[in-house]
Design a protein that fits this description.
- By secondary structure, the chain is α/β, with parallel strands linked by helices.
- The chain has 3 domains: 2-62, no CATH class; 65-124, no CATH class; 129-229, Zincin-like (2-Layer Sandwich).
- Helices cover 35% and strands 27% of the residues.
- It is built from 6 helices and 13 strands.
- It has helices at residues 39-48, 50-59, 115-144, 184-196, 205-214, 218-225; strands at residues 2-3, 8-14, 20-24, 28-34, 64-65, 77-80, 83-91, 96-99, 104-109, 154-158, 165-167, 172-176, 228-229.
- The strands form 4 sheets. Strands 1-2-4-3 form a 4-stranded mixed sheet, covered by helices on one side. Strands 6-7-9-8 form a 4-stranded mixed sheet, with helices on one face.
- A hairpin with a 4-residue loop joins β11 and β12 (172-176).
- The longest helix is centred in the middle third of the chain and has 30 residues, at 115-144.
- The two termini are 25 Å apart.
């Protein structure tokens, strides 16, 4: 790890022709450079981009991370339905997860309470409740916007860490089960976003005109959704 004035950065040398910088909220600052690039040249390049890097890193401070890659421990705060719940772990004969009335997520573990294992168990539970809760919501939206004639060929709630939703060329709509972690308004926006792709399978002016007609407040909702990381 290398140190600049306001941040640390990692250097990766490979068979490439130019130097580039990647700044991400989870991996930090990564500098990719050609093999045998002089150290002074890399430092100079980083220095020239330091103001942009600093501002980008500061912008990440307003982001909210949904999951913990390190796993979950007893007492952790977990986001679900747009609000935080306290995790309570208990030894049990078998693994289970349930939601209590007092905004507590109770999880029983048989044998190991390894944080990564608990995380995997919770992820399966999130997917299950997302399917049960978001599938009826999708049917409600189809009824609500029936005048637009949206006719998806299929709908699914599944694992999608890169995107919140998708619409295939054959009209199959899928959304990420991670949306169950957030307020319902975000799932609604993603569903409408994908429904509009049934008419315009692109992000053209015509697409956004339709989206604005169907869901006038989409810009504000999208801006808020972009603050969440997975």
């Amino acid at each position: 790890m290398h140190v600049s004035k306001n941040f640390d950065y990692k250097i990766i040398l490979s068979r490439r022709r130019t130097i580039s910088i990647i700044v991400s909220p989870d991996k930090g600052v990564i500098v990719k450079a050609p093999l045998r690039t002089p150290a002074d040249a890399i430092r100079k390049f980083v220095s020239e981009k330091s103001e942009w890097i600093r501002k980008t890193l500061e912008g990440f401070n307003s982001l909210k991370k949904i999951d913990s890659s390190e796993g979950y421990y007893d007492g952790d705060r977990i986001l679900l339905y747009g609000r935080y719940h306290r995790l309570k772990l208990h030894p049990a004969k078998e693994y289970y997860v349930k939601l209590s009335d007092d905004d507590t997520i109770e999880a029983g573990y048989a044998g190991s309470n390894d944080p990564v294992l608990i995380r995997a168990m919770l992820e399966r539970w999130f997917r299950l409740i997302a399917q049960k809760r978001l599938t009826p919501k999708f049917r409600e939206l189809l009824t609500k916007y029936s005048d637009y004639g949206f006719k998806p060929s299929a709908f699914s709630v599944r694992h999608m860490k890169k995107r919140w939703g998708s619409c295939s060329s054959k009209g199959k709509i899928a959304i990420s089960y991670d949306l169950i972690r957030l307020d319902e308004v975000y799932a609604e926006y993603v569903m409408v976003h994908e429904l509009c792709h049934l008419r315009h399978h692109n992000h053209s002016a015509e697409y956004y005109a339709l989206l604005s007609e169907v869901y006038p407040g989409w810009k504000d909702v999208r801006k808020e959704l972009q603050r969440y990381l997975r």
